[in-house]
Fold:
Amino acid sequence: MLEDLGIEMINVPMTPDGPDMTQVEARIQNDPTVRGLWCVPKHSNPGGETCSDDTIERLARLGTTASPHFRIMCDNAYAVHDLDDDVPRLANLMDACRRQGTADSLVLFGSTSKVTRAGAGISFMAGSAINLDNFRDRLRVMTIGPDKVNQLRHVRFLRDLDGIRAHMRKHAAILRPKFDLVQERLSNALAGTGMGSWTTPRGGYFVSFDAQPGLAERIIGLAGDAGVKLTPAGATFPYRRDPNDTNIRLAPTFPELADLDQALQVFVACVQLASIRQRLTR
Structure:
């Protein structure tokens, strides 16, 4: 969407606490043309990071120094997608913005696309009165209204927050063995080899794997030749360009456990093969 609108995107590295806020703050301070920031605050795609309390406070303060038109687009896509009950707590970004007097700088999004049915769920938007009024002015010429039958369907199925949590625990029961298998296969084959590192997410849908620089596209190609389809290299970067050609997003949620096990064995073999070939050419 941003590419189509001609809006330049700048890649910012992630840390275990969320986006590298020192770099974010420096870019906003040094470049008045910066107009916004996209953020997945919990179980971020693809690394699974959850913003720390400090990161939330620093995000809230951005509106005090940025352009008046600056907006944080906060896509809380994995708000309830926990793999266990003991997960990092996400502080309330809107409350933090209100404390800083920057509520107009924040727009929040969420949906049930990964709760009920993708493409057939309901979506949500939250923000200040100014932001919501601007959105309504544009939305009213695009649609006469939401699908109220589908809204009712979701209310009757999910009921309330406790109902959502109970439903998502069923999701977790399906997904947890798959994420555990990914960790087991990667650790058994690659731990201590220097051939890659990976995240251990506690929620969300992905595991982020970093190969040696210059190998991500090669590993994905080898896996494809062996019949295992992976997300394209650079898929999570602006313009799909990973500057180090190192990151591979693993999505273990869809395959059955036996198929996932076979695919992981192919994947680690491709990592090993590409890494050894690289070392031999040095």
Remarks:
- The mean pLDDT is 93.
- The two ends are 41 Å apart (CA to CA).
- Strands lie at 14-15, 18-19, 36-39, 71-75, 106-111, 123-127, 196-198, 207-211, 247-250.
